[in-house]
Each structure stands twice: as structure tokens, then as C-alpha cells.
Amino acid sequence: MSWNTFGRVLRFTTWGESHGPALGAVVDGCPPGLRLSEADIQPFLDARKPGTSRFTTQRREADEVRILSGTFEGQTTGTPISLMIENTDQRSKDYGEVAKAYRPGHADYAYDAKYGLRDYRGGGRSSARETAARVAAGAVARLVIPEVTITAWVSAIGGDAVDPANFDAAEIGRNPFFCPDPVAAARWEGLVDAARKDGSSLGALVECVATGVPAGWGAPLYAKLDADLAAGMMGINAVKGVEIGEGMAAAALRGEDNADPMRPGVDGVEFTANHAGGIAGGIATGQPVVVRVAFKPTSSILIPQDTITRDGEATQLATKGRHDPCVGIRGVPVVEAMMALVLADHKLLHRAQMG
Amino acid sequence: MSWNTFGRVLRFTTWGESHGPALGAVVDGCPPGLRLSEADIQPFLDARKPGTSRFTTQRREADEVRILSGTFEGQTTGTPISLMIENTDQRSKDYGEVAKAYRPGHADYAYDAKYGLRDYRGGGRSSARETAARVAAGAVARLVIPEVTITAWVSAIGGDAVDPANFDAAEIGRNPFFCPDPVAAARWEGLVDAARKDGSSLGALVECVATGVPAGWGAPLYAKLDADLAAGMMGINAVKGVEIGEGMAAAALRGEDNADPMRPGVDGVEFTANHAGGIAGGIATGQPVVVRVAFKPTSSILIPQDTITRDGEATQLATKGRHDPCVGIRGVPVVEAMMALVLADHKLLHRAQMG
Amino acid sequence: MSWNTFGRVLRFTTWGESHGPALGAVVDGCPPGLRLSEADIQPFLDARKPGTSRFTTQRREADEVRILSGTFEGQTTGTPISLMIENTDQRSKDYGEVAKAYRPGHADYAYDAKYGLRDYRGGGRSSARETAARVAAGAVARLVIPEVTITAWVSAIGGDAVDPANFDAAEIGRNPFFCPDPVAAARWEGLVDAARKDGSSLGALVECVATGVPAGWGAPLYAKLDADLAAGMMGINAVKGVEIGEGMAAAALRGEDNADPMRPGVDGVEFTANHAGGIAGGIATGQPVVVRVAFKPTSSILIPQDTITRDGEATQLATKGRHDPCVGIRGVPVVEAMMALVLADHKLLHRAQMG
Amino acid sequence: MSWNTFGRVLRFTTWGESHGPALGAVVDGCPPGLRLSEADIQPFLDARKPGTSRFTTQRREADEVRILSGTFEGQTTGTPISLMIENTDQRSKDYGEVAKAYRPGHADYAYDAKYGLRDYRGGGRSSARETAARVAAGAVARLVIPEVTITAWVSAIGGDAVDPANFDAAEIGRNPFFCPDPVAAARWEGLVDAARKDGSSLGALVECVATGVPAGWGAPLYAKLDADLAAGMMGINAVKGVEIGEGMAAAALRGEDNADPMRPGVDGVEFTANHAGGIAGGIATGQPVVVRVAFKPTSSILIPQDTITRDGEATQLATKGRHDPCVGIRGVPVVEAMMALVLADHKLLHRAQMG
């Protein structure tokens, strides 16, 4: 079932295909009185924008957002905010091959199995282009949670990880990889270039930290803060794993090594560790919320792969179109956006119940 | 915000605390005409039941389920199915210490930060006892998807993994660890015993595979099958990470190593790999759906830890009550239940849109 | 699709059949720290209870509610509140006739057309007995909105209306009809007795007023306060019409006769009329919220009616069982409960967005 | 709380203000493979369009709809359908008076009480202009339920009702009132002209009948077909009452007069009456679904009314702008659209549970 709305009280709905006239998001439930103009959204879209370096797809989109509703005299009114981004670089090409055969690793086969037809141009609705709409919605969500600071970065590409000792948040914006470690960033140039030249692609890890989240946001069950983050992150194209705090590694720990002891602190409590990633029992503890997300390597590669046609015949397919050699890189602004959207929703949920 | 309902059209709502009179689930949206009695649910509760070996908590609960509504003459009627399990072993003990101080790693502090008060007896609503209600609901969900077979097992405890070469599904039910590898099961006896004697605890990995899921269930965005599985699994107590298919490891792969090539097969298509874990673009491919979940080590340990009292004073706390030395073990039936609940929901969602 | 949950953030889910072992409601999203015990709920159930006069069904139910979760030391904890009422007077009778033929005016035929099977004992899930669960849930909702006073009454039975000049709120609890006009109450004794002796039944109008609702609760569209009230009221068994303020009569008015002029008042504004029934553009104006609801005459009558059997044969059916001669009378506590549930939900929704 | 999404599985979300650049709807959950182009939607928008006679507002809008997503090669793909209508006639006028004082009967005061600010230009989000988005969404919903025929008409204006003996469905499209009785239509010309010349306005009744709804759509409780219709209709601007079948009049009937007897018929059953309006116990009976809706007289009138300014000062206000003398007239396509949207949603819900 198509279900393009996310959130419980601060909800957003996205629409649009890779090669349709436009795509967009409707953000509903936003508090009134927040200053909002296109200038508050554009920088986040620019960060995600394709075609800005040789390490991302060469599709060129201005990704200019227009606010079509929900503001008045520069402020949100509390009514739905409609955001639209026109598609401008829908290169006319021959989609015959993709129309007839299924690209392995893509949604093509599953999509046809479900719907019986599909918009095969650039992946249609399954294209990562949809994430532009989420990034726009996320920019609105950030305004709802001024107390929170969200920072994401690529922490590994193709298994080559940043060195925590080199971590410098200021570096993230200085290289085309959202890499906080200048040494790793230098290595990744060669790594990604090589993969691109091989016609291959690389997976990546993205880490995201939110500071300033007050203790108490979240819920004990089902609408747990971590469960909603997991849903939000796993809902991003190409994501195959989500971790909170220690994540999968927690499974190898003993209780005393995973404990987050507390002692009296400035704001009443100080934690001396954060294995939990800022969430206990689904509720924020006041520590930084830490999420890690695994992006698989882009499925579109030039190396031919076995597949079948829509008629069930064996064939081979190499994806020649423009694509990201490492889709995780441009995932960074999307992960930040989903973090903002989930946290903003939980802020409103919290005050619904708690006043 | 308390939010104890999960699912989109096949929905369940759970209620109950560790030390209240009872706990339960209401399953709504179930198709009519399915044969259902307590005997269809009890075996799954028995598998999760505490007190069956020295490797789980010594709390003894019969965990007998009663169906209070939604069936007539042994069949579901299409109306809500109310399931109730009475708590019988609410040992009267002195909760003074837990009432006054926060157990590190537990929801205690976050809970108080949110609600300002909490039922501290046995963790209250945050107790893993709630998962009995999900297991009961999951047993109903299984009846909705007879075409699907779900199997979960513990694949590692405290970092000690099963050997895939030894995998034997028949072994899972033969040892107290839900372990498919008899050699590992033997090792784990010592491992868990040692942790228990140390007053410590161990994390665990649980893997779950669903076969028979038809290509097409799921959705391209937000209500993606993988996103809903991630939400469901991360919503289980003590879970800190969720992986689909290659999971976090996908981040270290190259495109050609992560590809799932296709060739003509018996049912039209045969995949020659399943890195995707049976889900592409949020939609089932028809391959086995593969999910891995990380359980942190039980936070309740006998080793004293630094913490604070409700009044903000420094103190130390050792959790002396009954507890599971490895909460992941009894997570196996819960993971299976969540898999069943998510798949059943998506089966109904699929036919809502597709007829 | 069975859908037994109502509300957006303060949600309740009901379950149970007329002749099952019990029925109940789970109330989720309730703020913590409210004093709640069975004694806060029982009076509302007693008001709705059958068998208290000859003008209601002779089924005798204690309708004793038990709180199974969500409270601790007499206060709500913010977790789901499970309420259960056992059925005690499930008179064993021969349901053969009702099992085989459809009672006109009842859900029997539609139910079979949908589900293919039904629990025909006392109407099963379609029985007005379910409203006990709502009344219990409504009692919890009242605690969420202490600023609001809700009063409902029967304003007409079988077309015989109360005289507004005789209106005395204190009278409502003094007669078996929830009638605010003692003169009308006296007339209704004869009216309802006559209908009962004829084996017939009567329709009724119920009016409900909520005072103290602050201006601002509600929403401009879809989740309008009036739209949610309409859904809640039309969802009560036997209700066929819902009016806000002037209601259907507004269609016959001119603009100046329907206007609600304003002038400066004690709290900033004073309205000099309330044709709107306290809701403008879906949002509360601060005036009393006024809803009127039409209950059809009980469909169960002793007068034989043409119908068909499950096999499609012509037959006649007279409903001999216990039933209310005027189901609208006992609808009064149910209407009040739905008013409380909708308003409490909107109070929480309002502060989610507005802080 | 702003909540601009309606529906359970076939959901639509609307956005836009009276004087913003555009308004629109996103329809989600639509089955794939339906032929859909702008030409399928435009006729319904044209029927609702302002400025087509002297009996509606003189605002002139082309109301041209564009489909921005969700179709491919003229067919729905199963992904969200984004519909946009640009506002073209946003007459620049002086809104100073309306900005400073509250129009009685409008949402102005309540809106300010809720949000603290409002887009006062033409009513902003509260403008009936929003209904264009619903009419567009409704046109899509109609494609989902080809088995159903929906017809609505104005059955009374200002208390002057059509004569059932004159009912001719073919007349509905032949006069500017959607009136099925040519004699009444002739009378209404004078009636509405007089009100307009007086600077006044008139209320109206709209009746809507859906035939072809199969027995079984709907649900026994909460998501009852009638409850969802009530929510949908009461959510339309200016609606103050909703009736199903006998509606409010049912309250004055005796059981035998309200009965809908059955006898064997062509499709198994034939009802000899339809007091229930095609819905019993929340589920369709297979008879025509009959809904009646009361529209209040347009609140914008030229006759000055007492009101207050935003600063709480007494003043008088006469609404001089363009407005409909009888907003109920253009409500006809909106009522039809809501009927289509609710029925289409319930068709999908029914098959979710029933297969």
C-alpha cells in the first residue's frame, strides 16, 4: 500500500517521481509563528544537491524550493506548508532497456510484482530524488526544535572508516564527502574515483548526533523515540541497517561494559557514558542521541549483471545513466532531515501528553 | 506520548505492567473465519515463558492466555480480539531502593524525567513482561499469513557466534538458547553460567527469516516493509540495532558484491543471491525476508553501578531481583511475533490497494 | 474493516461482545498524575446501566469496572489504562430464530454480507452493550478536561419535546428519562409505557452541552472539532443524525438571523448569540459547545416484520428478547462520554501544536 | 492541531489558502492501472467553479488542475497523486478592516484565539476555496469505485424545499442551483436574488445518494460507514448538520414505522423501505446510501453586524467582498466528492480485511 505520510502529529507527506514535472512535500501540524521563507530551506537542499562534485551523480538540478502555502508575512500560520521543487534536468534518453529488464538491486522487479506497471524513468517514485522533498520538510522541522543541534557525517566508505582521533566537525563541510576527518577525506578521493572508474560503487556509514534533546521526549513502547528513528532511517532509499548508541555491537557486550552510570551533575544528572545513544526505554535521557545508518553501495553500476526481462528472458544489464558512485554521501542531509522530523514530532507529542 | 498501538490496518494495542493484575493485547482488523482458540496462542507464550531454565529469570508465570472477545464457535468474527494474561508471580518485595534511585541502563531516569512519576515495581510498563502481549498478538497474526514460515534463533551471545556450517533448524527447540548450532549451544551454557555467577549479563544477536512472503508486499516509501520491520524490532525492549539482509555490512561492500542477480526460474524468476534480505525499495522480492536484531546485555546486574537518587544524590545500585542473564534469549519468540505482525499487516495493506 | 480505535492522540480502543465473557476499553495517551480509581468511573456506568427502571431493558448487569493497568498508587502513570467489565447476565436462551433470520433494522444482514459469519447472540459486537466500554473510557477523559462541564439530556421522545421554559438541569437525574422538564417526564411515562405494551419502540433526541471549552481547541479542516464530534456521535449505535448549534435548521435561515455578533466582554469578548454551537471553522469559540443527536427507535420490536432467512427464504420475525423500548434514553451517558473523549483529545492536540 | 489528511487507507491531504499562489491535494493509496488525466477531474471542478452565474461569488477562477505525480502514460501507478490548482483571481483589495476586526460567523476570532495570527486575506485556510482541492481528490476517488453512482442536489434553499413529485435528476445540471425540481428552481431565482439584493444570504440543504454500494462495505464501530460520512460532511465549510436516511426525523418515529423489511429479491434480498439510508450497524446494506447535509447561510453579509476588533474594541462590520449568497449551492460538488472519497476508502478497507 502506498503510504507517503510520516509522523504522528507533525506529519509530512511527499509526492513526485524522478522524471515528473516536480516533487514536493506537505508539512502538517507545524506550530504557528515560526519565521519561515525559502531561504531557511534552500541551504539544506543545496547540501544534498546532485552535480556539485565528481563524486555524485552528474544530473544537474537547481533544486529550488517554493513555499506554496502555510505562511503569511514570513511566518508559519499553523496550516499545512506545501513545498514544491521542480525537476529541470530530466534528460531525454532511451529508457527502452530499463523498461524491458529489471535492474538488479533496484526496486524494479518488486515494483512490477506489486503494481503490474511502473514509471521506469530514472526509477520513478523509487528514485533517491524523492529525498529532496524530505530534506525540505526537515528544514521546516528544524525550526520546531531550535533547542536541538543535529550533525551528521560519513563515518566510513567501502569499509574505510574515519579515525575518531581526527574528528573535526568543522571539516564536514569542507570536503565533498561530509567527512569529519581530513585524512580520511583525502583517502576517499582515490577510493571513490577508483570505484567510479571501475564502473562500480561503494557503501557507506552515516552517523548522526543530536544534542540538546531534553530528557523525556519519546514513549515507552511502539512510538519509542528509537523505534520512530529506526522507521525513519530505514525508510531512506538504500539503507539496510540502523543502530542506536552501541547498536549491533551491544550484542557482544557484558552488562557492566554497556552501563551508563549516573552521578550528580550541573542539570541534576551527569552520565559518565552513553552506550544507550541517548535513549533508554524509548525515551530521551538528555544525552546526545546517536544514530548510525548503513547505506548499501549504489545498485546502478556499469558492470553488467545477470537479470531477466519483463517477459522472463535471461539478459544482462549495465546501468549506463548518471548515478552516484556512493549514494551514502548525499544521504547525510537526508539522515539529518529524518532526525529533525522525528525529534520535532516527538517534541509535539511530548507536550500533547505532558502539557 | 504513550502510544501503544502498532500496525496500519491489522493493528494491535497492548497494555499492562509487570506487577499489575494482568496484561494483554487487543488485535483489531483480523479477517473473519480463521480458526482460533487459546491453544493456537499458548505454545508461543510457552516458548517465551520465564523460569523454564536457569538461563532465564526465575520469575514463574503460567502465562495462560484467555481470549475475551472476537471469536465465535472457534472462529474469528472480524471484530477485535482481546487477549489477557494474568500476572501470578508478583513477588512482594521491598522496592524501596529502586523507588528511590535510578537503575543505570533502565528507563527509570528517562521515565521520571518524562512523566514525573513511575510504577517502579519490576520496571512497570517498561518491563520486558509486556512482550508476552506481543507474542500473543503475533500468534493471531500468524493465522493471517499461513503462506509464510517464520523462524528466529539466537546467532550470537556475548560475541560468541554460531557456526553457519553447523546450522540445523531442528536444534533451535532442543536447547534453552534457541540456538541452531549444538556446538555453540554447549559453549553458551558455560558462557551464560559464568556471566550469571559474575552477577553480569550478556548481549545477543537474534536472526529471523520469513520464507513464503510473496513478491509485492510492502510499499515504496515510509510504509516500506523494511521500515515497518525496523520500527517493530527497535520497539522491542533492549534492542539497539536492526539489519535487513547484509545490514550494516552493506556499507563496506562494492556494488557488484552486493548485487542480487536474477535469472529465469521456476516461478518466473530466480535470484542467485539475497544481499537485500528479500526487500528491494521497500517491497518484498519473493526471497526470504532476513532480519537481524541486536539485544543489549540485560541492564539489571548484581555488579554495583554509580547512579543517583530521585533527589539527585550520588549512590550505588546493584539490581538484586530476578532477571534474565541474557535478555536476548527470550527475545526470539518476540522477534518472531513482530515479524508475523508486520507481515500480516502488509498482506492486508497490499490487498487493500491491489484487490 | 474492523476499526475499534477512536481519537488522534488521546485514543481509546474497545472490545467485547454482548454475550462474551467481558468487554472493555484501553485508553492510551492519558496524561500522568491524574487521580483515578474505579470510583471515578462507576457512577457513569451506573447511569447507563440497564435494568434500573421499566423503561429500559430488563437485562441486569452490575457493570462493575476494573482498572487493569495504567495507574499506580491511585494516579495515572501515562501508560495505557485497561478497563474491563464482565458480562454477568448472559441469559441462556434459544437464539435459533435470530441465528437463521435477519432482524430488520439491525446489522444482522449487513454483518453477514460483510463477514460471512456473525455472533448472533444479543447482536454480538453490534450490541449497544459495547457503549459501556465507551462510557468507562469517557469517565477517564473527563479527568483530562476538568475545566469543562458536560451535560446531556433527552430533549424529545417519539416527537414529544421538552418545553425549554421548563428546563431545569437538576431534574435530569430525578427521572428515568434524563429529562430536564418534569412535565415532559410525566408525559413520557405514559408514552413509553404505551409503546412498550404495543411491542413497539420510540426514537429520541439527545442534546449535549459542554461549557468551559476554551476558544482555540479544534482545527480548521478535517480534524475540525465539529467533524470529530460528528464522527464520534454518528458512531454510537442507533444514531442517524448529528447537529451542531442550529444544525439542520441553519439551512432555513438568513445570514443575519444566524449571525453570532460579538461585543467586548469580561474575558475580552462576549457573544450575543450562539447559533454556531460554540464552533466556528472547526475551532471552539469559547461559547458552549452544543450538539444534538437523533436516536432511531429500537429496531427490536415485538411486532412481526417481513424478513428473510440466511437461506434467502421469506419469513417473519418478532424480537422477543429483552430490549430498550427507547434506546435513546440510555444514550445520554454515551453521548456525554463521546463529548468528553473528543474534547479531551482536542485539548491534547491543541497543546501539541501550540505548546 | 492542523490535520489536513482524511481517510484511512485511501488518504488525501489538502493544502493552500484563498490568496496564496496555489492550492492542492495529494491523494495516496490509489490503486494502480486506473486511466487518469486532467480531463477526468476538470468537469467536477468546473461544476464547483465560482463566477458561473449571478447566484455564486463573482470571483473568477479558471480552476485548472494539473497532475504533478502518480501517473505514467495516462495511468495511475499506485504512488501519490499530486494535484495543483493555481489561484489566479486574488483581487488586490484592502483587507485592513478584516485584518483588524473579526467577521461574525467566520472562523476569524476562533482562529486568532488558537494560532495568535492568521492569513486574513479571503479567509485564508478557512476559505471555502479549499474545497476545490477536495473536489479534485474526489474525482480520483470516483475512478476507484466505478460500481457506484453518486448524485447530489440542493433540496431546499432558505427553507423552500423541492417537491419530491417534481424530482427529475436530469434537471440538476440544467439550472444554476443543482435543483432537481424545475418549479423550485424558478422560485429560487427570485429567492436568492432577493437575498443578494438585501445584502443577506441563505442556508441550504444538500442531499446525496450513492447507488451501487455493495452490501458489506463499512465497519461495525468507529470506522462505521456512517460515522466516516458524518466526519467527512461535517468537515465541509459551513455544514452544521448531517443525516443518514431518516436522519433527525428518526427520533420522532416508532419502531414499526422505521423498519426496513426484507423479502427475497433478485440479488437474494429486496428491502421494501430504506429508512436506514443504506447503512445498518455501520455497514452498507446494498440499498442506496442517503446523506443529507445542512449548510448555514453564508456568514459574509452586507448587513452590518456587531463585532470586536483584535484589540477588543466594539465595532461593526459588513463584509463587502465577493461572496456566495448561498454557499450551499456550490457545496453540491463538494458533498459528492466527500461521498466518493469515503466510499472509495471503505472499498479498499473492506478488501483489506476480506480479501
From TrEMBL, chains A, B, C, D:
Keywords: Amino-acid biosynthesis, Aromatic amino acid biosynthesis, FAD, Flavoprotein, FMN, Lyase, NADP. Pathway: Metabolic intermediate biosynthesis; chorismate biosynthesis; chorismate from D-erythrose 4-phosphate and phosphoenolpyruvate: step 7/7. It holds the Pfam family Chorismate_synt. GO terms for biological process: amino acid biosynthetic process; aromatic amino acid family biosynthetic process; chorismate biosynthetic process. GO terms for cellular component: cytosol. InterPro entries: Chorismate_synth, Chorismate_synth_AroC_sf, Chorismate_synthase_CS. Reduced FMN (FMNH(2)). FMN binds at residues 125-127, 237-238, 281, 296-300, 322. Its cofactor is FMNH2. It comes from the Bacteria. The keyword Ribonucleoprotein does not apply. It catalyses: 5-O-(1-carboxyvinyl)-3-phosphoshikimate = chorismate + phosphate. The keyword Protease does not apply. GO terms for molecular function: chorismate synthase activity; FMN binding. SUPFAM superfamilies: Chorismate synthase, AroC (SSF103263). NADP(+) binds at residues 48, 54. Belongs to the chorismate synthase family. Homotetramer. This is Chorismate synthase.
